[in-house]
Amino acid sequence: MKTMKRREEMVRAAASIKSARGMTLVEIMIVITIMASIMGVVGVFVFGAIDKANEREATIEIQQLSQLVNTFYLTTSPNRLPNELSELTQGPAPLTKEVKADPWGNDYVYVKSGNRDFEIFSVGPDGSEGTEDDVRAE
User: Fold this and answer.
1) Suppose 102 and one of 6, 37, 113, 122 were both cysteines; which one would form an S-S bond, judging by CB atoms 3.0 to 4.6 Å apart?
2) Bridge partners for 119 per DSSP
């Protein structure tokens, strides 16, 4: 009877040792690979959303600056467009406190063409004018 109990205890001890074993290197590598794949997919969507948000922010700021330039034109006598965007922050009644940089840290480009025509745009994330990623008002 004692030997049977002892044998039973040994079987239980062996079973508990077997069930308490750690993960193998292959199992750990599989888990890491799955986690990296998920992070890669999520990262693509997150960074894509950030790029679109920056483009949208630049478009809104360009529209606001265009409205300020039109207001400048209407409030000056004789009517004229500013020579540069910094003129919007000057004078006895400035139209804005500051002209912020675009979401990528570059200054907005202001091109005056004629007495009443102008264009404001952002050079985009690459910082080069005339490329595909330039942001213009819609």
Assistant:
1) 122
2) 111
At residue 128, the 3 state secondary structure works out as coil
pTM summary value = 0.69
Round to whole Å and give the CA distance between 81 and 73: 5
Find out whether the peptide bond into 92 is cis, omega within 30 degrees of 0. Answer: no
Calculate the average pLDDT of the chain.
86
Q: What is the per-residue pLDDT across 64-88, written as a single tens digit (0 to 9) for each?
A: 999 999 999 999 888 899 999 999 9
CA distance 59 to 65: 10
pLDDT at position 72, please? 92
For 63, half-sphere exposure in the C-beta direction (CA atoms, 13 angstrom radius) is: 8
Helix boundaries (H) for the chain: 2-19, 25-75
**Structural domains for the chain:** 26-136 (3.30.700.10)
d(CA 70, CA 112): 12
